[in-house]
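User: Sequence for DUF3868 domain-containing protein below. Tokens please.
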Amino acid sequence: MKSICFLSVLFSLLTAPAVAQALPDGSVSADSVCIERQGEYLHISMNVDLDGLEVEGNQAVLLTPCLRQGKDSLELRSIGVYGRKRYYSYIRNGESLLTGSKELTYKRKEMPSEVAYADIISYDDWMNGAEVVLRRQDYGCCGSLLAEQWSVIGGYKEALVYVPHFVYVQPQVETVKTRSLDKSAYIDFPVSRTDIRPDYRNNCVELDKILATIDSIRGDADITITSLSIKGYASPEGSYANNERLARGRTEALRDYVAGLYHFSDGFIRTSYEPENWEGLRTYVAASSLANKEGILRLIDDDSLTPDAKERKIRASYPADYAHLLSECYPALRRSDYRIGYVIRSYTDVEEIKRILRTQPQKLSRQEFYMAAQTMEPGSDAFNEVFETAVRMYPDDEVTNLNAANTAMRKGDLPTAARYLQKAGDMPQAIYARGVYAMLTKDYAGARSLMETAQAQGVTEAGNVLEQLKRIDN
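Assistant: Structure tokens for DUF3868 domain-containing protein:
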């Protein structure tokens, strides 16, 4: 089996506290700190409250947000607030302001009570996990530094949002698409007779059902019937020997009736029979509300008794329940099961496969469903529908359930994905898919164990998830 990985992009959400943080002297505070990474850049914004800031006429205050982590740090755009004398001193002497043209500059008397601060910087890996500091520096004449204080106002940490890589598995190619159709018919016979009377009771309807089933297959140019088998059942009342005669004779009569209409070759229709349908009786009793259900089941299961002895004991021990069984259960036990075996031709043209997908999906193999999906955009409605239809056609197939689970997880339908994963088997890709499910449900311990197993069994995508788990742990 071939694995195909349809990739999605992993992205990050950036977090920072929004609670106001103030300098030690309470003169300046910052709140609504927002840090967002957009590609190669880091966008920083906040509200800086200057309402408590006092600046002497011959002094200047510089407020500078900084990113720092370990030995790495970076100063952002500064806010400069200047007393009247200090501001005009800079202007008169032709000097630049404290930090140059990028600085947000205010004269003390024109200073707003709040500044909507924003800056953009180039992102570097060391910034993940950095703290955001607001530094205040007080300057006197000649640019002398008089005082300095700072406060941590936020932090920057990338919070991973896991978007999985889904690994779809290509099913094995069926060389011959062999299928079968199983049906039951309830043909009525007069007492002790084995000849079929089409006009007797409901026989016309039941016989037409058999013929319609055969015709629906024979009339399809893509299908070739390869076999037909009939198994007849009789009910347990009466002697076993007579029931064996009836089951055999009635089955042969139905075979001859069908063969006479279709002229199948000799031996094409295979027959078998069950003289007394005890399995069907037990199923009915077990699901019933009969007053003596448990006693009847014990008799049915008693292998020390012959079939005739069982039937006599049930009739003698529980006459009321037996009468109910005779009228309500036994007629349904007298039935003929038939199986039509056939072969469907293979399809290689994808456009033809898509047409059949819309009208007769039961004719497609698992591989043909997969071929159609490969021509569609992963995650699109059409793509999803292919795998959802495939799992309806092959509800017990492991590969089909795995691919359907991937589709359900891609759509965010985790309960449905869990149901499919239960039937996906233990192939490496299924272990990986269960790890994806664990990641999506934030079961990181379970995800780690599953991904380690999947990686050891050759699923390379599991290694990427394990690397992401390390970042989550940190």
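The CA atoms of residues 176 and 353 lie 17 Å apart.
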